[in-house]
Each structure stands twice: as C-alpha cells, then as structure tokens.
Design goal:
About 15% of the residues lie in helices and about 25% in strands. The chain is of the alpha/beta class and about 375 residues long. The termini are far apart. The chain has a single domain, classed as Metallo-dependent phosphatases (Purple Acid Phosphatase, chain A, domain 2). It has 6 helices and 20 strands. It is globular.
Length: about 375
Amino acid sequence: MQFILGVIAILLAFSVYAFFIEPSRLKQRHYLIRKNKQRVLDISDAYDMFTQEGDVTIAHISDLHFSRWSKPRRLNKIIRSIMEMQPDIIVFTGDLIDDYKHWPKKQTDRLIEKLKRLKAPMGKIAVLGNHDYKHGGQYFVKEVLKEAGFTTLVNEEVFGSDAKISMNIVGIDDLSGGSPSYNFESTLAEWHILLAHQPDQIEAIHSLDQYDLVLSGHSHGGQIRLPYLYIKTQGAKRYTDSLYLPTKNTILSVNTGVGMTMIPARFGVPPEIIYYHLSNKRQIFENFDGNFNFEKQITVEKNEGTPEETRNEYIAPDRKAVPQTPTDIPTNPNANPEDKPEDKTDKIVDINLFRRRYKNKKII
C-alpha cells in the first residue's frame, strides 16, 4: 500500500511540475559570437562582463504556440527580459499559434498588444512555422505580426547597415506548410544570417557556407525529456537543440521555444530566449549618420501551377536584378532526414554539460 501511495505521490509531483512549474521557468541564454568564427562563448552567467560597446545583440524567440490554454500573458516574462536586455534586433522563428481552427478570436487584440511591447531599434523580423499554416492560419499570423511591427520574410531577405554593423537576413518558408526557396546569393554584408523554422531544412541548402549564423526552432527539445525518452520531431531529427557546426563557417542554433503543443507540459526542457552578441573585429561605416533600416531585397512571385513555375528575383545593393531558377531540391515534408547519407557533423556541445564543466570557455 505504501508503495502504491509513493508512486501516486511521485506521479502527482511530476504532473504539477510539468504542467504548472517548468512551463513558467523562462531561461535566458547568451552567446558571444566573434566574426572571425574562431570562438563562441556561452556567457549566460556573466554576459555583462563580456559584451562591449559596438556589439550588436539579437534576441531569438521561437515556438510560442498560443492557443485556448496558452494565453498571450505568457509573453510577460519575455517582455521583461527584452526590456532588461534592450536587444538591437528581435527575430522570431515561427509557430506563433498552435492551430488557427481553434484559436480564440477574442484573444487577437491582446496578442497584438503584447507583441507590440517587444521593442528593438533595428527591427523585428519573423518567419512562419508549420503550425502557422494549419487550416489557413498563415494569413492571420502574417497580419498579426504586421500589426505588431514585425517584418515577415517568406523566401525573402532584408539588408541593413549602420555605424556598428552591416547585416543581411534571409528568411525561408516552412518546409511542411509552405514552399521554401533556397536560391539566395551572398551579399557584401559583414554578417549573413538565415532564419528557418525547421532546422533540418539546412541540408537542402547548397550554399550554406555563406551564412555566419542560422537560427531555427521547431524541435521544442523534445518538450518532455526523460532519461530514456527523447521525442524527436519530423524536421528536427538531426538537429534537436543547442549549437551545431554544419560547415566550418556556419553556426546553427536551435531554440527549444517557449510554448507547447499536443499537451500543455514541459519536463527537462524549460522555455528559453536566446541572445546572440555579435562582435566585429573592426568598425565599419565610421562616418555613417542615420538610422539602421532594413530594406527588402527579394520578392518571390508565386504563380498558379506547380512549384517549378515559381520565380525569384534577387536585388542586391548596387546591383541589377538577377533572375534565378529553382534547383531540384526535395520539399517532401514526409522525407526522413535520417535516410540521408551520414556525415561527420556533430553537435558542438551539450550545453547543459558545458555549463557545469566548461563555463565561459571556448566551444568553437
């Protein structure tokens, strides 16, 4: 009898923690990234000691999954974190809502109000996730993000520069719900950043080496992580969480997100917001006098018919439009990344282990 009561008590404690406590434990991660690619530091416990004037900070949020049981008030801790850190740019990598069919319409104005409170002087940029496309929800999500001041990139890119940095940010469409395009040329910007909701999408990008930083989400880190149970999501089976080095010049960061899907619980994977502190070895545009503004450089025109009829035009700074034709890249959402030939790409570091043993040490 005592054994049964003990098991019930353990299950009850587990449920209370997974459903009510851990989903509210927002964690902040801070990475200092050098332009020369020679090192990345996890400075989460002492970020104020490592950052310096001239660095540009990007706040990365992903997988909010607002729904009937996950209300916009969950953004309050993120808003406080953003207000404290005052990042230069905010990026959101998809899944704003869980399912448009069941979205409580009366919460829309409240959601827009909360998203507007996320402030960033250089801009707020987003891409769509697979849940945003459920039951035609992509149109609603785009409008909400637009009202909240976000620029949503669907196979598009933006370029901007100021006295501290020049940056090109590419946002590709979701693999499951949308029609992703991977034809983007390198620009003259110092930093090239790619936003893709599903991290496994990067394996379809032939020119991945041109990007300094790839930001993704989708995986939730498994959402429920037990010693012998780790649930991997289609689209994030190869890259599940933390940092990776898919090429010698490219860092991939997979955000485990804030919200929940299927069941409103988390265990072993608390919600997170990640800050990337980009550090250049030299200053550019020293005589620049003005504000940092992103301008869209790519327009994707979707014609009626098959994906082969889709046409992209890339307009780089001070260049003429360059027509591009789609490559034969598979976009089958049912494709299993594990069926592809195995390579030697490994996770850079298990962050939990790293934080215990190698705090503030070089990981690349």
